[in-house]
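Q: I'm building a small set of examples for a reading group on sequence design. Run inverse folding on the following structure and report the sequence directly after it, with nothing in between.
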């Protein structure tokens, strides 16, 4: 049992290094001040609503890690309840590494990244695979994606933290830059028309 939610990441080994490197006192104050969240908040729910991708980390029984990119329509990683997130799992390359890892070791990690706003959130928890709950599968299904949902993947939150924006390179999706591109095209057309009008006089 952890004394603080952040103990899921700040193991005795980590705390020892924090002490040696001079950052432990800052994190002790964070712990005493309430520390990391352990359930869905309005802030997290709002962050998820705009997100169209995340990274999912699992490990097998030997501790070998595996990171998987997951993408979909904005908001495809949904809030199931105050302690649970979920998403629909569609057919892929059929390697089933994540499913195999979860069968041996349910501990998991989700890394949420909003490149455009230079924001990131880290979540620790456990994964559960659900293949026979039609109501849950329908709830998590992406209406804009025609693929068949093969299963639901549920992530039970143990702790989460908003990470600092330092060193994040800003990137934008095609959908985010499309309106700007259209404005530029319209302005170019307008200027070209003015040039053509002047040259014809």
């Amino acid at each position: 049992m952890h004394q603080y939610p952040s103990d899921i990441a700040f193991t005795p080994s980590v705390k020892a290094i924090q002490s040696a490197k001079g950052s432990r006192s800052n994190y002790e104050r964070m712990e005493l001040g309430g520390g990391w969240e352990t359930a869905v908040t309005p802030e997290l729910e709002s962050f998820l609503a705009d997100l169209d991708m995340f990274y999912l980390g699992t490990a097998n029984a030997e501790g070998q890690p595996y990171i998987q990119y997951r993408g979909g329509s904005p908001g495809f990683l949904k809030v199931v309840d105050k302690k649970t997130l979920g998403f629909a799992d569609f057919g892929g390359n059929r390697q089933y590494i994540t499913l195999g890892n979860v069968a041996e070791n349910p501990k998991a990690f989700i890394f949420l990244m909003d490149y455009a706003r230079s924001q990131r959130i880290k979540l620790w928890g456990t994964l559960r695979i659900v293949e026979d709950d039609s109501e849950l599968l329908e709830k998590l299904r992406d209406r804009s994606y025609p693929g068949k949902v093969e299963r639901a993947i549920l992530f039970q939150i143990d702790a989460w933290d908003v990470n600092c924006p330092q060193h994040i390179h800003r990137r934008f999706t095609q959908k985010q830059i499309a309106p700007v591109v259209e404005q530029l095209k319209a302005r170019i057309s307008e200027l070209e028309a003015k040039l053509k009008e002047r040259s014809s006089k």
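The CA atoms of residues 116 and 172 lie 5 Å apart.
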